[in-house]
Amino acid sequence: MNQTIIQERSGLNQFYAKVYAFVGIGIGLSALVSALMLTVFQAQLTYFLMHGRLWLMIATFAELALVFVASSMAAKNSPAALPVFLVYSLLNGFTLSFVVAFYTPGTVLSAFVSSALLFFVMAAIGIFTKKDLSGMGRALMAALVGLIIAMVVNLFLANSFFDYMISIAMVLVFSGLIAWDNQKIRYVYEQSRGQVATGWVISMALSIYLDFINLFLSILRIFGRND
User: Fold this and answer.
1) What gap in Å lies between CA 100 and CA 224, rounded to an integer?
2) For residue 21, which of 4, 84, 90, 204 sits 20 to 30 Å off, Cα-Cα?
3) DSSP H/E element including 29
4) What is the pLDDT of residues 140-170, one digit of tens each?
5) 167-215: per-residue pLDDT in tens?
6) Is 44 helix (H, G, I), strand (E, B) or coil?
7) Rounded (to 5) percent helix, strand, coil in the chain
8) Residues 41, 98: contact at Cβ < 8 Å?
9) pTM of the full predicted structure?
10) Per-residue CA distances from 167 to 2, 65, 97, 186, 216 (Å)
């Protein structure tokens, strides 16, 4: 009996490791592209900021499309899910560089470290808690939709205090989603009895990746309010 439990835990740990390997690859690719845009291709970044707003909008909409495509392919266990996820990570690194460019390096570093620490705490809660977080997760998804609508409205209002409050709410929402998504990894493994399709690995990795990136951006807006 003990041997069975040990094998199950070992298999679950391997599944978590596989998911986080793809998360690490995605974040690594995004960070690499952003770093290159901010250093080697700084002139091109400045040009896009000054004259290439249309292309930035196209890139942003392409990102949204790739998220839906990757999620759909992952659900169908398509082999194309992985390359789509990698392309999305590269494109997201490109668009992130234009956001990061508006903040000082110290602010970016502080936001990244804080995001990483908060991420690991919430991930640990999701992994080890015995309480079912599904209800909380659904409520947070509903809250996220409301916050996205509020962000769109604030594009026209341009209210800095409203933006600040939205950023704080976003940190709370994505912190909760990190815990929920990490718990879902365990549920997926248990429900499939350890026979998890590759598509699910990509789907889980994409969710965790999005949680971290959005948490980082929200904290960056809070820390860099005066930048």
Assistant:
1) 10
2) 4
3) helix 2-38
4) 999 999 999 999 898 888 888 999 999 999 9
5) 999 999 999 999 999 999 999 888 887 777 778 889 899 999 999 999 9
6) helix
7) 85, 0, 15
8) no
9) 0.91
10) 46, 24, 19, 29, 10
